[in-house]
Structures are given as structure tokens and as C-alpha cells.
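Researcher: Sequence of AAA family ATPase follows. Predict its structure.
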Amino acid sequence: MSDDIGDTIPASPEVPKPSVLELLSEGPGLTDLPDEIAQTLRDAGGDPFAVSVTGTDAPAIPLPAGALLTVVRLAASFGAEGIAAALRPGAVTVLRGVLPDDTELLRSMLAHLLPPDWQVKDPMRGTRPGPDALVFLEASRDSKGKLSDLAVFDLRRKIRAALDSATPVLIALAPDIDLPPALMPQALEQRRFAPVTADILIAALCASHSATRRIDEEAVRAALPPEVQLADLPMLGFSLAMQAKTARAVAERIAAMVAKAAPGPDTGPWLEDIHGDTPALRAARQIVRDLRGWKTGAVAWADLTRTLLLYGPPGTGKSWIARAMGNSAGFSVVSGTFGQWQAAGHLGDMLREMRKTFADARASAPSVLIIDEIDAVGSREDRDRHNFNYKVQVISAFLAEMDSIAREEGVIVIGTCNHPELIDPAVLRAGR
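Model: Prediction complete. C-alpha cells:
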């Protein structure tokens, strides 16, 4: 089977090749089977909704699963109006949450969302992009998927080159990379690469596992795992699951994959197991509900509470609640302390370790970054002038990392401490 979905769409010299979205919207002849025959088909593992008047239950032209899902995810990420806006002269759009493994396929599938005769271009390759072109930019990685400082520099160089023309630009960002500070978010159109939800999967299955563009949607939804778990399955897992014969079998295979990958009953802690109605628990539960909604696309990242400070006497469960939030939201948990960072050595070593923790949180996104004993950051208003320059540099570097995280999607920061009054006011500022 070809990796290029465009190669699977028939065309003649006289008739323009239809786009993938047009192909998905076509509706071949439908048939309403008698109830008895439909139930017999279900009992045999078939799908009566997928059977056409010719008796077939599969599309005439098979579509590669990964390519198909990518096209539907792109369409869901933008919508018709969003695509039109992204193609306006001078438009700069940032698509966040694009995993490294998805980048190459995303680039090749973009062409199916563009108007006829438009092309996807790289400003550093070949001739200067023409008027009917979309410049696509992403950071290159080595054979092990690692992101080097040189790759980040190269991406910024490409961005500068692309901005020299009025050609629209699309920047695909993985969770572990951020834009140059000079590119203020307010000047950009920022979107999130839509995760695979039940609706997106069903739209794809209607094209890949039906001759009628219909499937037994009720049975598929009943077989699928919760969307919070669905969002954690990698694209390779979906591609494997979609090798099953029917849409319901695909859903059952996905559910089995998710169940096998789920943590065992001894893994924890879980927010659901912590009883009480304290302000901290109420805030934690609301944030977890919102994080689950974000994973399914129901809540925008901008509408989330993305930072939380848990403070109180020792032994009151602050770190326990923070870890439980990550587990219950289905987020990775990354932790660090100023004590650990300072143990690395002198100022440069300390800052290197601190930045590494923040980078680990980005690379593990979606993630919860827990900073225990955050009051050790200190305050520039402290009257004790001992090591004042050291303290200023530490606080400034910490604020820079917090601001960088705030410009991205996928990482929330939870601080825990005993003495919030010792924390620099800039760290506690609303919005940070």
C-alpha cells in the first residue's frame, strides 16, 4: 500500500484529481438491510451500515490509515475558515503539539487541504516560494529523534527567511521546542494539532471501513475507551488497529491496546482516592477536569488554569496531591527542586539542571511539572544582601523558563512549599 494518500485517488487527464476531503464527503449508494439480515451481519462481526447496494462493505480504493487520520486531524485543527485564514498573504500560523513522528506525514498531507495548484514549500530548498505556496517549517532531528541546539538555530533561521516574503507560513512545533521570544504570541495565529477523538476516528473509519461512508457508529462508540485514554495512543497504534476488518473491530482493538498500556492498580496516587473538600482539593479537581477536557478538544488551553501553588505545613500532602493530579489527568509527571538543581555545583551547573528539568517537561508533554520546595527560589526583596547577585540570576532564569512554558501548550506547573511569603513577587504574579 502506498504511503502517499494522493496515489490512491484515481484521476484522468480530463478530470482534476479530487481532494481527500471531497473523497470523504462522497456518499455511494446506501442500502437499508432487513432487520434480520442486519442482525445476522452484526452477530458475524460485520457492519450492516457499511454494506452498499453492490454487497461490498469496504471502499473501492483503500486509504492508508495514518495518512487518513492525519488529514482528518488537520481538518479538525483548522476548519474551513481557519485554512482560509492561514493561506492569506503574510499569515503566520503556529500548529502546536505536533509530535516528531507525525511531522513528515503532516507535511505530505497538507497538500490535500490546499486549493488546486498550491504547493507546500521550504524556504531554504530550491527557488523562492511563489504566490500560491504555503511555507512549512519544523525543526529537524537526528536519527535518534533528538533535538540539537543547531536544529533550533536552523528553525529560527528558516523563520526569518520565510518572513522576508508575504508568503503564508505554517510552523509545526513539537512540545519540546518554543518559538523565538521575538515572535510574540499575540501576533500569531496559534492552533493545536487536534488529537484523535472518537469523532475524528469515526470520520476516518467511515472512509476506510465502509462502502457507504456509514458505519455502526453506536457500536463503535460503545467499544471505544474513554477519550482521555484515546488521546494517549500513538499514531502507530491507530494504524495497527485500523488493520482490523470492521470499524467495531478497530474500536475493540484500540480498547485492548489502551487497557494493556494502562498502569496497574498499584500505580498512584489518584486524585479520586483523596477524600475531603479543602480549597486545594477543589482547585485540583477542577484543573484535572479541565485537563481531561483539553485532551479531548473540549477545553481550549487558553481557558485552563496552568499554574498552581500548594502551600502549608510539612506533612499535609502537597506533593501527593500534585502527583495525583498528573496521574488522574493522564499526564506525565516531571519533578524537580531547587535543592536538587543547586547540588549540581556552581551557578552555571545549577541553571543547566534547572533548564533540563523544564526541557524534560516539554519533551514529556502533556505533563505536570512539579517544583517542590519552590520557596527556595528566594526573593529579590529579601533584605539579606548575601549572595544577592547569585539570587537575582537564579530568579531571572527561573522566570524566563516559566514565561517560556506559558507560551506553549501541554505543560502545567505546580509548586509546593511551606513558606509562600519567601517567594519573589514576580514568581507569584497572576498569569504566571
